[in-house]
Amino acid sequence: MSHLLIFGLGYTAKRIAARLRERGWTVRATGSAGDLDFGDRAAVLTAIGEASHVLSSVPPDRQAGVDPVLEAYGEALADRRLLYLSSTGVYGDRQGAWVDEATPTIAQSGEGRRNARAEADLAWMDLGARVLRLPGIYGPGRSALDRVREGKARRIDLPEQVFSRVHVDDIASAVVSALVQDVPPGAYNIGDDLPASGNEVTEHACRLLGVEPPPLECLEEANLSEMARGFYMENRRVANGKAKRVLGWRPRYPTYVEGLESLN
C-alpha cells in the first residue's frame, strides 16, 4: 500500500488527499486540518520514515527567506519520492511571452528580483523532487464568481496584462498522475490551455451571474495590497505541454469558461 505524507493540508492539498484515499492510499498530513503537528519532530520523522511519497504544499517564509519544510526536515527527505507544489511566479515577468520548463527561473538566471519561492523551487529540484509549478488557482468557494457575488471583483486597466490559471481539481489530477507513475524528477507546469486577462474572467463571471461588471480602474485607483499589486506587475503565458506529454495529464477544465460554468 502507498503512504503519502502531506506537509500543509490546505485548500488544494485536501482535494489531493481525497483523491488518493479513494485510490486506497494512506494519507497523513500536517496543518490545522491534518493529524500531525509540524513542530512534533519525533512524530513527523516517524511519519516520513513510514511514507513512500512526500508532498509539500507549504510556501516559503518570505521574511526569513527559507522553506520551513526543508529547514526542519530536509535531511530526512533525502531518500523519499518527493513532490513540491511551487508557483509559476518563479519565472518572473516575461512581458506576456510564453514560458515552459526550459525557461530559466529567476533563481537560475539571475534576472529580476530573487525571491524565497524561486529559491525553494530550486532547492526542491536539487533534492530530486517532481516540482509542479502552479499559476492562479481557482475552484469551489475561490473563483471570480465568488468575488463578483461578494462585491470584491475588480477590473484593472492593464490592456496587455495576461496570466494563466488552473482549476483546483486539475491540480489534483496532475498530482495523482505524478505520484502513481514513475515519471522523471523535474519541473512540470500545471495550467489551463488559455492564458487570459483577469478582466476577461471577471466579465465572464458577471455574464454568468447576469450582473454588470465592476468599473474599470487604473492600478493606482485600485488601492491594492502589495502582494496583489506585485501580481498585476507580472505578465506571462504558461505552457503546459510537458505535463501533457510526460504525465499524460489533460485539464478537465481547459479554459476559464468551462471552469466557471462548472462552478455556477
TrEMBL record:
Acetylation recorded as keyword: no
Annotated ranges, domain NAD-dependent epimerase/dehydratase: 64-191
InterPro entries: Epimerase_deHydtase, NAD(P)-bd_dom_sf
Pfam families: Epimerase (PF01370)
NAD recorded as keyword: yes
Record key words, sorted: NAD
SUPFAM superfamilies xrefs: NAD(P)-binding Rossmann-fold domains
UniProt xrefs under Gene3D superfamilies: NAD(P)-binding Rossmann-like Domain
Name assigned to this protein: Epimerase
